[in-house]
Amino acid sequence: MPATVPDLPDPADALAKAGRRLDARGLAPATAGNYSARLADGTILITRSGAHKGRLDAAQFMRVATDGTAIDAGRSSAETLLHCLIYAVDPAAGAVLHTHSVAGTVLSRALAGRDGIELAGYELLKIFPGVATHEASVTLPLVDNSQDMPALAALLRPILLAQERLVPAFYIRGHGLYAWGPTLDAAEAMVEGCEFLLACAWEEVKLRGGADDQSDPI
Ligand SMILES: CSC[C@@H](O)[C@@H](O)C(=O)COP(=O)(O)O
Ligand SMILES: [Zn+2]
């Protein structure tokens, strides 16, 4: 039974409020980002393409089926298929948030050729399921950017499914973060925590003068 967000009387309103908070934190520049929630009937409520995520209202959401097909009129997010992928590979996912931060964007570009962003030693690693100490390491899958969403989803699917314990976040190089959780609150905490960790990692790379040492966890 897939997770839903039953705690939200109005998922569009709750997602719009999350958008205002993420925008206020600098995580939704221009019209970047997209947000969704799994509804009780299994369909997906998602932002329409091109909406400013700091100024969302109910009209800027629409429903899509699990394969991304529009249920309501209009054009859903250009990245709808990535949301569909997440709900398909993680039955516990109830909400998905996608952000664009300066730190994550430049860090992922500095890690050219790497297929993961390894985060180690931080207290905030405890945001990840199963992590109870800072003496841990969590790797966010990192893939190259593409405008071909079916191809990007097909690339990500086996990467996510191969994880022993699914990390509820991944990064698209030079583009942005996807993070999710069983509820919208959990998804927002995951996105906020990941962006904090990426900002710390980027600061450390700058202190070290670059990310050339491939063996160094960030
Ligand atoms: C404003 S450029 C960013 C977009 O290309 C895209 O990456 C994005 O996050 C928003 O796309 P959208 O179609 O509005 O969901
Ligand atoms: Zn994006």
TrEMBL record:
CC cofactor note: Binds 1 zinc ion per subunit.
Pathway noted in the entry: Amino-acid biosynthesis; L-methionine biosynthesis via salvage pathway; L-methionine from S-methyl-5-thio-alpha-D-ribose 1-phosphate: step 2/6
Catalytically driven reaction(s): 5-(methylsulfanyl)-D-ribulose 1-phosphate = 5-methylsulfanyl-2,3-dioxopentyl phosphate + H2O
InterPro entries for the chain: Aldolase_class_II_sugar_metab, Aldolase_II/adducin_N, Aldolase_II/adducin_N_sf, MethylthioRu-1-P_deHdtase_MtnB
UniProt name for this protein: Methylthioribulose-1-phosphate dehydratase
Family designation: Belongs to the aldolase class II family. MtnB subfamily.
Alphabetized SUPFAM superfamilies for the sequence: AraD/HMP-PK domain-like
Keywords on record: Amino-acid biosynthesis, Lyase, Metal-binding, Methionine biosynthesis, Zinc
Enzyme Commission identifier(s): 4.2.1.109
Pfam families (UniProt xref): Aldolase_II (PF00596)
Domain Class II aldolase/adducin N-terminal: 13-202
Its biological purpose: Catalyzes the dehydration of methylthioribulose-1-phosphate (MTRu-1-P) into 2,3-diketo-5-methylthiopentyl-1-phosphate (DK-MTP-1-P).
Enzyme class label: lyase
Coiled-coil segments on the chain, per record: none
UniProt source species: Sphingobium fuliginis (strain ATCC 27551)
Known cofactor(s): Zn(2+)
Positions with a binding annotation for Zn(2+): 98, 100
